[in-house]
Amino acid sequence: MSLRSDPDPLADALLRPVRAGNAFEETLARLLQAIRLGLAAPGERLPPERDLAARLGVSRVTLREALHALQEAGYVESRRGRYGGTFVRSLRPTHPTPPAPAFAADVEDVITLRHVLETGAAEAAASRSLDPTTRRHLRTRLAECTGAGVADYRRRDARLHLAVAAAAAAPSLTAAVADLRARLDALLDAIPPIGANIEHSDHQHRAVIDAILDGDPQAARAEMAEHLAGTATLLRGFLT
């Protein structure tokens, strides 16, 4: 079985058009899943970018970012020349480590709990009349996160999400989000840092904070849900 252009029900199911909201993350996860399920054998060349982009319904820029992330993670390699292209690597990637069943189950538990807690926190924060100190704190955390390098991003990202929880003014909720973040970071440590995802997250963070500061609970909840869905897609793609 392969990722050739020939009709293949499994390939059609895996390489169906992605949603626009988290196009990069979903493209990356679809390609990763296809490779891990053996649709492209080790040493096999992936279809041309134009074909893959068309099947996934994404731009070639988005596709190239996803392929670059897979190359950085050790799943594919790029070769130049007349017979060049993107090839599945024959060596098993050393990062991430294939998860144990219990580890994979924890991924779903964290994803579900995070959606419930953090979308609710964003909605609650946007429902409140925020004092100047809280509004300034949210803007500061957003500014710190925006444009941060890979080395600092996770810590600053955590502070931003905790700031949103704190803005809901429910100490138990903030504590729950903090505890959940420790579990989330353990999962994120098992996948490679991805620059394009960080850039995408910056835009989503701004949309979340803007909705909170504008006092729009429905928008805050929806923007946070969209943001969390991107991370969930990556976690499922790499770890389940």
UniProtKB/TrEMBL annotation:
GO function terms (MF aspect): DNA binding; DNA-binding transcription factor activity
SMART domains: FCD (SM00895), HTH_GNTR (SM00345)
Source organism phylogeny: Bacteria, Bacillati, Actinomycetota, Actinomycetes, Pseudonocardiales
Residue span(s) of domain HTH gntR-type: 21-91
Protein name: GntR family transcriptional regulator
Lineage: superkingdom: Bacteria
Native species: Actinokineospora fastidiosa
Pfam families: FCD (PF07729), GntR (PF00392)
Keywords (A to Z) from UniProt: DNA-binding, Transcription, Transcription regulation
